[in-house]
Amino acid sequence: MKKKEITEIKKQFKATECAITRLRGCYVNPNGEAVTYMNKPFMSLPEEEMFKYLRIATDCLRGKLGDKLHNLAADEGNMSFGEMLEPLRRTRLKDDNVFKDFCEEVIENNRDWVGGYMILAMHSVYDIPGVTKDGMDLDDASESVYAYVLVCICPVALPIPYIGYNEFKNVFERVTPPLAMLGPKMGILYPAFNNRRADTRGALLYLDNPGIGDGIVRMLFSCSVGRTDKEKKEAFEKVMQRVLSDRNGFGQLKDIYERIINRLMEWREEDDLELTKRDMKSILENAGANPNTLEEFEDTWDEFLGDKEKLTAKKIIDEKRLRVETEGAVINVKPSGLGKVTVENTAGMKFLTIQITGRTEVNGVPVKEDPEK
User: Fold this and answer.
1) φ, ψ for residue 229 (rounded to 5)?
2) Which of 95, 172, 222, 226 has the fewest CB atoms within 10 Å distance of its CB?
3) What is the rounded distance in angstroms from the CA atom of residue 364 to the CA atom of residue 354?
4) For residue range 307-351, what is the model confidence (pLDDT) as tens digits?
5) What is the pLDDT of residue 148?
6) In 69-213, which residue ranges form alpha helices assigned H by DSSP?
7) Which residues lie closer than 8 Å to 61 by C-beta, 6 or more apart?
8) Whole-structure pTM over 0.85, yes or no?
9) DSSP letter string over 264-318?
10) Residue ranges of the domains in the chain?
């Protein structure tokens, strides 16, 4: 799912737009035992309670893709992807046994969880409106229906005790509140809303922290979450450092990153540019890398990233600047100014030079131009 599609679904979690039909829940105590179950038509909830659950649903779609939000997709041979979630969707959460079996599987595959937690499941049906060429919704032209389930895992804990007033004793005393359900640590939207259509070969995963619910993900989708964008960026930097360090002059390194940035400039809001190993090899080759460097690049990419890994280009390279660092100085250059930065040798010494074509400032203070000599 792309950012635009996630936002479209998130907009449904408002009282005025809500299409959630049913809410299910199961409280699991710290011993990993199902204590109680909940089953309610969503629209029958008291208003304040409804808002709380809508907030939880919204939180499960909050965050950046590649950070807290992760797209999951089934490989060609993965036939068990989502098979535990599909019955929930098909029965619209109305079947007690189906939900109970699902919760038992979650509990069994979530033994590493510390403390009690609540398994929440919401079923919703979204009438997908048609869209004009300029992106405007056609409210009276529903093209299809997107039926989905949203599963949330929320910690349950004792809030911090406080000093409260006891009206029967007419005294202030220590009060220990009852168990409270906290914000979600994990959320699963199934099926994915790809290309504004239900895609049962995909799902959207929310993780408040990396590593949470690995067993649940494997149980539901027979796959792993994969690296975060931060981890991918770190791996990519290691690849570039090993392959290019001390082998290329400033001009060639600048050319390599300029080519990547030029590819980024082709990126559009609705179509994130992803770079594969083949793309990066082509960029290096066009920048003049020799065959030995290209061969080592492939091996190093496989070592740190894996042959099939794709990198979201704007997450690994800052398309707004190129950072040049030397001892005692750091220069950040806009893409349009890359050609103005060069390395020159004069009298046996190296100089990092920047061509000045406009006004110059030091901490915002304009510099007086020296007359040409």
Assistant:
1) -60, -35
2) 172
3) 18
4) 878 887 777 776 667 777 777 788 787 766 777 777 787 887 888
5) 95
6) 86-90, 96-108
7) 6, 9, 10, 13, 69, 187, 189, 204, 206
8) no
9) HTT-BTTB--EE-HHHHHHHHHHTT--HHHHHHHHHHHHHHT-TT--EEHHHHS-
10) 3-221, 229-366
